Every structure is written in structure tokens, then in C-alpha cells.
């Protein structure tokens, strides 16, 4: 996924570049590749788009993912279009889009969930259904809480 910044103009407010949005979506890995391959795809996406002023928090395992992306309104809309068009195998479901005043994340945060006791504790703390990570069974407030819980202790979280 490569985001272009060709929409930038001399008047940065013309297209809403001054408005920050937060987009949260969940996805399911519908291809035969495993979560590690999906993580590699998302890592390439991150590297390709570091200059587009996007920040992100991603939680992933072999089957599912939750991602929150923050950036200007035009960039977030471009990300959404690319997700739907170029990544249909992720089966993205939008959980929420909101205007924000400040970013919550600093850079690109990634947490790969395993079957470790610590990761199961994160999952249980978020009130998901059982110890298995399945964001499709979680309410939007649980997903938001889960993101915050996973990344609350990291030095990269701004909140």
C-alpha cells in the first residue's frame, strides 16, 4: 500500500489536511498465508508510507487484526480506499472514524499476539469472547479498550 501526497497544495487547509482523523478497522486473514506473512505485508506498507505522516497501532495474530490509523482527512480517506481496493483478502470492517485533536500513537506500533500467558491476559482484559483473539466478537468499545490496553505501557504511546 503506497499513499501519495500529490493532493497537497499551497493552501494546506483546502482539502482538510489540517483535520486529523482516526480510523479503526478489523480484518480477517482470508488467504492461506499465515499471520507472519500478513505482518510482512503490513511492514512493507509501513515502510512505504513513513513520509505520509500516518501513525498507527496494529494488533495481529495468524487470523485477525485490529488497526488504528491516524492522519489528515485526505490521507485517511486514501488509506480506506486502498484497503478496500487492494487488500480485499483482509476483509476490512470499519469500526470507527473520528476527528481527533491529538494523535495517540507515535509512529507505527505493532503487537503480534501469540498464545503466551501475557497475550491471553491482554485478550481477557479486553472482555473478548474467551481467551482467543477474535475482534469480530468484540464491541467497538472493547476494540478501542483493547488497543489502549495493549499499547498503554509502551514508550511510543502519547496518551
TrEMBL record:
Descriptive protein name: BLUF domain-containing protein
The organism's taxonomic lineage, starting at the top: Bacteria, Pseudomonadati, Pseudomonadota, Gammaproteobacteria, Moraxellales
Gene Ontology molecular-function annotations: blue light photoreceptor activity; FAD binding
Source organism (scientific name): Psychrobacter piscatorii
Pfam families from the UniProt entry: BLUF
Gene3D superfamilies in alphabetical order: 3.30.70.100
InterPro entries referenced in this protein's UniProt entry, alphabetically: Acylphosphatase-like_dom_sf, BLUF_domain
Domain BLUF, chain residue ranges per copy: 20-111
Amino acid at each position: 500500500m503506497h499513499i501519495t501526497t500529490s493532493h497537497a497544495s499551497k493552501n494546506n487547509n483546502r482539502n482538510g489536511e489540517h483535520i486529523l482523523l482516526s480510523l479503526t478497522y478489523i480484518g480477517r486473514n482470508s488467504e492461506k498465508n499465515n499471520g507472519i506473512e500478513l505482518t510482512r505485508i503490513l511492514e512493507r506498507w509501513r515502510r512505504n508510507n513513513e513520509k505520509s505522516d500516518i501513525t498507527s497501532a496494529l494488533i495481529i495474530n495468524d487470523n485477525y487484526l485490529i488497526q488504528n490509523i491516524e492522519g489528515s482527512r485526505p490521507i485517511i480517506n486514501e488509506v480506506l480506499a486502498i484497503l478496500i481496493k487492494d487488500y480485499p483478502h483482509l476483509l476490512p470492517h470499519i469500526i470507527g472514524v473520528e476527528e481527533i485533536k491529538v494523535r495517540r500513537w507515535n509512529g507505527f506500533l505493532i503487537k503480534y499476539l501469540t498464545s503466551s500467558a501475557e497475550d491471553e491476559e491482554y485478550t481477557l482484559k479486553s472482555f473478548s469472547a474467551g481467551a482467543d483473539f477474535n475482534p469480530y466478537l468484540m464491541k467497538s468499545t472493547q476494540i478501542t479498550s483493547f488497543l489502549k490496553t495493549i499499547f498503554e505501557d509502551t514508550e511510543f504511546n502519547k496518551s
